[in-house]
Design goal:
By secondary structure, the chain is an alpha/beta fold. Helices cover 25% and strands 24% of the residues. The protein has 12 helices and 25 strands. A hairpin with an 8-residue loop joins β24 and β25. α2 crosses α11. It binds adenosine-5'-triphosphate and magnesium ion (MG).
Length: 548
């Protein structure tokens, strides 16, 4: 058997286990609950949970909720749901806010060690004092406050004596360090704002860099995996652990997932939701996990995608076609086939007796013989797809046309004899004859036809609404915009097509949201959450083939 090469994280972990550095590994997935998860997070989830599973370790779910103004319980719940839906179960569930007291105590330790101080510079002044990567910064005039004064001021910050933005707690490191992260980074800011879990207990909140690594350490995370832009933060991550002499978690960085024709930052996705450019976070066109789910993506297809893109240390952009390929791979194996006509054109079989009908055998899933067969009703009046007929066929159009014979899938050969039009000249009906000898789709005399069409029986078909989607953005890199423009300007105005008068074989009558189907010749579809027995609604997940 061919062995898959280890990715760089697996190599690190295997070495750590072999050398005895760790007996077992512990990872975490640390979302900030300020939005719904997207496909980029799915990569991180598959990676963190996947590594823990592969090496018999553990993986926590940790909500990085240090920013009270942007976080909500709705997001926490959606994150739990999405991780579970992807097929993963976390070991511990934690909130960074669980650690606020410990983080505060550690800040006091740093003050006592003369490694932190209260600074009264305004944000503007602070950024001037920081210098630039080429020029060293300037030390704050508050840098040499005594331990006593710092302890007093920090406590009063906590007690709420000072207004927002008036003071911060900073680490005392090195204002000349070429790594800007070391230029006395802010540890705490004052924010008189209610937190979704701690209410009004706190009015000082820890910054990401101070909270994240220490939370890892509290949970004894061995491998803290994050995206590449944090590599410049790693020395600071290590500095805190050393200064506090706490469990030595280590940070490792991998390339974040980028996909073309979409945007992926939560801030931008929130903007699409708030400004009603989409129906909500779970709009089937959104790259969110909930949107992909509603679109008909399966957990297996997203896990397959994560496996295919792999893990690397170099940023790149993945073609959205790969994501579509993954869902086709999965749904081709698993989905129930049915016939559906999206844009119906009536066909009357003139030599089929009125009032008669029959049930024909159809295969449920050719990829899975265990899925068996079903009965599809056939009768004198049928519907076919309007675009499967041309009155004056173009070159290379081999489907139905006057005088042409085609096969109806699982049924008979039919020939079109007459085109019926309304007063305005629109085609309203085709009158055809069928050959009873061709039942099941073959002809005893070996006569060949060039096309096989899907169809439904008019009297037994169920009505449905079907939604077809195009890409939400019309350019490959919507985030690259000219001055004064926004990524919103690159939205595709035709990303949604709603077809209200579709006809589907009766098999789907009792469908429930999240049932997956292949509508023969049209693609993979999923029953939408808006669907009711009185009004069926389906979303197209993806067409059968890449249109490119
Ligand atoms: P966004 O910029 O979209 O808001 P984020 O990084 O701020 O994303 P977090 O909630 O902080 O979102 O991320 C939780 C975890 O998911 C982090 O470990 C982060 O590195 C990872 N992650 C976020 N986006 C991606 C992505 N595009 N590809 C891979 N991992 C990602
Ligand atoms: Mg973030």
């Amino acid at each position: 058997m061919e062995e898959k090469a280890l990715n760089f994280l697996e190599e690190i972990i295997e070495n750590d286990l072999k050398s005895g550095k760790h007996q077992s590994i512990h990872t975490r997935f640390p979302p900030e609950p300020n939005g719904y998860l997207h496909i980029g997070h799915a990569k991180s989830i598959c990676l963190n949970f996947g590594l823990a599973a592969k090496y018999g370790g553990k993986c926590n779910l940790r909500f990085d909720d240090t920013n009270p103004t942007k976080e909500e319980m709705e997001y926490v719940e959606s994150i739990r749901e999405d991780v579970k839906w992807l097929g993963f179960q976390w070991d511990g569930e934690y909130f960074a806010s669980d650690y606020f007291q410990q983080l505060y105590d550690w800040a006091i330790t740093l003050i006592k060690k003369e490694k932190a101080y209260v600074c009264d510079l305004s944000q503007e002044q602070m950024s001037i004092y920081r210098g630039t990567p080429q020029t060293p910064g300037t030390e704050s005039p508050y840098r040499n406050r005594s331990v006593e004064e710092n302890l007093d001021l920090f406590e009063r910050m906590k007690k709420g004596e000072f207004p927002d933005g008036s003071r911060v707690l900073r680490a005392k490191i090195d204002m000349a360090n070429p790594n800007m992260q070391f230029r006395d980074p802010v540890l705490y800011r004052i924010l008189h704002s209610e937190h979704h879990r701690t209410g009004n207990d706190w009015c000082i909140y820890p910054m990401y860099d101070y909270a994240h690594g220490q939370s890892d350490s509290i949970e004894k995370i061995t491998h803290s995996i994050c995206t590449l832009e944090f590599d410049v933060h790693r020395p600071l991550y290590d500095w805190f652990i050393e200064a506090l002499d706490i469990f030595p978690s280590h940070q490792y960085e991998f390339a974040r997932l980028n996909i073309n024709y979409t945007v992926m930052s939560k801030r931008k996705l929130l903007q699409l939701v708030e400004n009603k450019h989409v129906w909500g976070w779970d709009d089937p066109r959104m790259p969110t996990i909930s949107g992909l789910r509603r679109r008909g993506y399966t957990p297996a297809s997203l896990r397959l995608f994560a496996e295919k893109i792999g893990v690397s240390k170099r940023d790149n952009v993945i073609d959205v076609g790969l994501l579509e390929w993954c869902v086709r791979e999965d749904l081709n194996q698993t989905s129930q086939r049915v016939m559906a006509v999206l844009n119906p054109l009536k066909v009357v079989i003139t030599n089929y007796p009125e009032g008669q009908s029959e049930e024909l055998d159809a295969v449920n899933n050719p990829e899975n013989p265990d899925a068996g067969t079903r009965k599809v009703p056939f009768s004198r009046e049928l519907y076919i797809e309007r675009e499967d007929f041309m009155e004056v066929p173009e070159k290379k159009f081999f489907r139905l046309a006057p005088g042409v014979e085609v096969r109806l899938r699982y049924a008979y050969y039919i020939t079109c004899n007459e085109v019926v039009k309304d007063a305005a000249g629109n085609i309203v009906e085709l009158r055809c004859t069928y050959d009873p000898q061709t039942k099941g789709g073959g002809s005893p005399d070996g006569r060949k036809v060039k096309a096989t069409l899907h169809w439904v029986s008019a009297d037994r078909a169920v009505d449905a609404e079907v939604r077809l989607f195009e890409r939400l953005f019309s350019v490959p890199a919507p985030e690259e915009v000219e001055e004064g423009k926004s990524f919103v300007d690159h939205m595709n105005p035709n990303s949604l097509h709603v077809l209200k008068h579709c006809k589907i074989e009766p098999f789907v009558k009792n469908t429930e949201p999240q049932d997956h189907f292949q509508f023969e010749r049209l693609g993979y579809f999923v029953t939408d959450k808006d669907s009711t027995p009185q009004h069926l609604v389906f979303n197209r997940t993806v067409s059968l083939k890449d249109s490119k």
